[in-house]
Description:
The two termini are 12 Å apart. A hairpin with a 4-residue loop joins strand 3 and strand 4 (54-66). The chain has one domain (3-112): Roll (Archaeosine Trna-guanine Transglycosylase, Chain: A, domain 4), CATH 2.30.130. It is built from 3 helices and 6 strands. It is globular and about 45 Å long. Helices cover 22% and strands 39% of the residues. Strands 2-5-4-3-1-6 form a 6-stranded mixed sheet.
Amino acid sequence: MATHLAIFRQQKAIDQILHGEKTIEMRFGLTRQMPYQSAKRGDQIFLKSAHGSIIGQVEIENVLYYDNLTPEMIANIRREYGKDAAVADDYWQKKSKSRYATLIFLRNPERFIVPLKSPKKDRRPWAEIKTK
């Protein structure tokens, strides 16, 4: 089991996860980048806003990976999973040229009583955390 750190541009997405309103996290990209092929069932994800602390965690229930995406495939993903991903309409426009996607099904969200400091200092939106 691995531990991941997911960075979110908007606090709203983290709040939606912690309240059970967002049960799928989607990460699209032009290249194969984390969490593509690194997130697995049973892994933990720490939740951090871009300019804040780690305020919670969630467990990965399942993961789907897509490659060689076409606009039709992205439209199908939107139809099937868009509601559970709780993303705005403009998100789909921004991701329309993506070639890879990772869909992460979430369960057991937990807000921390005391936020944690992040060991990550770079700008990557996802990182695997090495635990002892």
